[in-house]
Design brief:
elongated, 5 helices
C-alpha cells in the first residue's frame, strides 16, 4: 500500500511541476504582451493623393479603342498580337458579315440619336473598326464554348453583346466629347 501512495505522490508532484512551469510561461508571455502594447508604434497615415491630369499636355493620341467585347483571358498571346500584322479570317459567316457591315454602325447610330449625343465621324469609324476587329474572335469564342449552336444563334448573341457594349461604352464616357 505504501508503494501505491508513493506512485500517486510522484505523479502529483510531476503534475504540480508542469502546472508551475506553465504558470511561469503564462506570466512571462503576459509581461511580453503588456510590454509590446505599451510601446508606441508609429502610425502610418496616407493623406489624400491628388492627380492633376489637366496639367498633362497630349499632342497625339493614338491606339485602339476597346469597348469591352473581348472576354478577359481568352487569349494569352496579347503581346504577340500587338506585334503581328492584322489578318482577317478569310471565311466568315454571312450573318456575321451582315452584323459587321450593317448592325454595328446601326447600333452606334441608334444609341447616339436616342440620347442626343454628338459623335464625330472619325470617332464613329474608330468604334466600328474596333468592334468589327473583335467580332470574328468573339464568334470563334462562342463556337468553342457552344459547339452545338447554329452560327445564326451565335450571331444573335453577338448582336446582344454589341448593343450592350455600345451602351456601356457611352454610359462610362458620360459627359465626354465624342469628337
Amino acid at each position: 500500500m505504501n508503494n501505491y501512495y508513493q506512485s500517486w505522490n510522484h505523479w502529483i508532484s510531476q503534475v504540480m511541476q508542469q502546472i508551475q512551469e506553465q504558470q511561469q510561461t503564462i506570466e512571462r508571455l503576459t509581461q511580453q504582451v503588456e510590454h509590446l502594447q505599451s510601446q508606441q508604434h508609429p502610425n502610418t497615415v496616407i493623406e489624400k493623393i491628388e492627380y492633376h491630369f489637366d496639367q498633362l499636355k497630349i499632342e497625339t493620341l493614338e491606339g485602339t479603342l476597346q469597348i469591352g467585347l473581348t472576354p478577359n483571358g481568352t487569349d494569352g498571346n496579347i503581346l504577340e498580337d500587338l506585334y503581328t500584322p492584322d489578318t482577317q479570317k478569310t471565311e466568315t459567316d454571312p450573318y456575321l458579315h451582315e452584323l459587321m457591315q450593317d448592325g454595328v454602325p446601326q447600333y452606334i447610330d441608334n444609341y447616339v440619336n436616342e440620347y442626343g449625343l454628338h459623335l464625330g465621324d472619325k470617332h464613329r469609324e474608330h468604334m466600328i473598326a474596333d468592334i468589327n476587329k473583335q467580332l470574328p474572335e468573339r464568334f470563334t469564342f462562342h463556337q468553342n464554348q457552344h459547339p452545338d449552336l447554329e452560327p445564326s444563334a451565335i450571331v444573335q448573341k453577338l448582336h446582344q453583346e454589341v448593343r450592350h457594349s455600345v451602351a456601356q461604352y457611352f454610359t462610362s464616357k458620360e459627359g465626354e466629347n465624342f469628337e
